[in-house]
């Protein structure tokens, strides 16, 4: 048997009471701005679950939850231009007039966000019986998935790997992509940088260059997992942007410092 929707979405604050926050806009802002992205993500996901699993909001959603959702969406709207560009495919919806069951039918037919992208033209409320439900669900989907673009970027930063490919190809890890030397050179030029330092991949010597020393992988766990014979390395960047590496050899755990030549900079690190 499924559990009843939770009525406690908002996180309690030890600093101020709910009544204080409700009455004081500055306290509300301080409280809500203090929430982490992960906390906001979980909050919005739970908010959507509650809206979709009950027939009304009067007994399932607290005023504090509505204020928090409104604050989250306000920040999103304020960060966007008045005229925004939307890539297709997109489903454009007209008047809703508080017809919550029909809004659910629209989502069921076209796909619930974020599987489908929607643009609403307004007239969310009045004339129908579910003003609050319609408005809150639309706002919830506006805020969810929370920071999807940032999450995708974080995923690619974590899981993408350099490889012997041209451009981008699916990663054998099963997540993100493998990128080629051409991608590294393109992005170094675009971002006006000399060197990309990355991790999250075992390399035998603790560090390994790629794309004509425009990218270096650094791994700092020697004898990884007890089964690898790899060394570990730490990348050192001086005040003058000279790059060197300290290598930790697993056999005797001796630190070996590999210093750059006088001419070496971040643009062209030296490995001795």
Automatic annotation (TrEMBL):
GO terms for molecular function: hydrolase activity. This is Serine/threonine specific protein phosphatases domain-containing protein. The lineage of its organism: Eukaryota, Metazoa, Ecdysozoa, Nematoda, Chromadorea. Transmembrane segments: none annotated. Residues 1-22 are annotated as: Disordered. Residues 61-259 form the Serine/threonine specific protein phosphatases domain. Coiled coil: none annotated. It holds the Pfam family Metallophos.
